[in-house]
């Protein structure tokens, strides 16, 4: 797993700020609620791609598996929340995903390429944050988040591979453009804490 995590650290433009780690540790119930939302949204994204691109067999197979895994993770987060007396509720979304998707092109194949790149970045950041959080959490949460690393790293690679396949050419310039946005979203202060928010000032 170290090799996969090193690959993700090389891919992402920055590490999670220490202040965000402090935010997460001080808001663990909120972190779990938003984590559950993230898993559900990830499954929804995979399913929407399956409905839109019905002729892409490789995408269909990878997104079907990904959606099942994300929904399983959703169920696991809910189970942890239930044991801790944390109520699953609505939350306003982080600016993160919307900020990334603002740059997605409107027409295919560019649209598909960009959506897949955004998916790869979100999965990579999730993996990086699970790894960053795990050493600071209680044993149950630490084990759970460590256990998620393998699948999240694979999801990142699947999304990136599908983006390259859809483009049929180098996607380096598009990846770089989205990573520049991601860096700004991750490092700049946020008003509310979410799993993919920037740091919330004291």
Structural commentary:
The chain is an all-alpha fold and 202 residues long. It has one domain (17-87, 104-187): Ferritin, core subunit, four-helix bundle (Ferritin, Up-down Bundle). It has 8 helices and no strands. The mean pLDDT is 96.
Quick overview:
With 202 residues, the protein is an all-alpha fold.
The CATH architecture? Up-down Bundle
Regarding CATH, which class?
Mainly Alpha
Q: What series of H and E elements makes up the topology?
A: HHHHHHHH
Low-confidence stretches: none
Number of domains: 1
Annotated CATH topology: Ferritin
Name the average pLDDT. 96
The CATH homologous superfamily corresponds to Ferritin, core subunit, four-helix bundle
CA(first)-CA(last) distance: 34 Å
Helix content: over 70%
Content of β-strand: under 5%
Instruction: Determine the number of helices (DSSP H or I, runs of at least 4 residues).
Output: 8
Secondary-structure-based class equals mainly alpha
Q: What general form does the structure show? A: globular
Oligomer: single chain
Summary keywords:
globular; 202 residues; mainly alpha; Ferritin
Q: Topology of this structure?
A:
Layout: H1 2-11, H2 18-26, H3 28-52, H4 57-83, H5 95-101, H6 110-133, H7 139-167, H8 172-187
Helix pairs in contact: 1-6, 3-4, 4-7, 5-8, 6-7, 6-8
């Amino acid at each position: 797993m170290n090799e996969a995590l090193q690959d993700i650290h090389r891919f992402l433009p920055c590490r999670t700020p220490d202040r965000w780690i402090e935010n997460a540790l001080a808001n663990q119930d909120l972190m779990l609620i938003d984590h559950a939302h993230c898993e559900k949204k990830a499954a929804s994204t995979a399913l929407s791609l399956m409905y839109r691109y019905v002729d892409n067999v490789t995408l269909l197979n990878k997104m079907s598996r990904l959606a099942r895994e994300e929904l399983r993770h959703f169920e696991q987060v809910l189970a942890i929340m239930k044991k801790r007396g944390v109520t699953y509720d609505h939350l306003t979304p982080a600016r993160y995903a919307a900020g990334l998707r603002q740059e997605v092109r409107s027409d295919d194949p560019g649209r598909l390429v960009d959506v897949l790149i955004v998916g790869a970045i979100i999965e990579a950041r999730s993996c990086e944050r699970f790894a960053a959080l795990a050493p600071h959490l209680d044993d149950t949460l630490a084990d759970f988040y460590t256990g998620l690393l393998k699948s999240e790293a694979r999801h990142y690679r699947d999304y990136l591979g599908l983006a390259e396949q859809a483009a049929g050419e180098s996607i380096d310039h598009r990846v770089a453009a989205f990573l520049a946005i991601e860096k700004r979203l991750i490092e700049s202060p946020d008003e509310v804490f979410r799993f993919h928010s920037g740091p919330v000032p004291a």
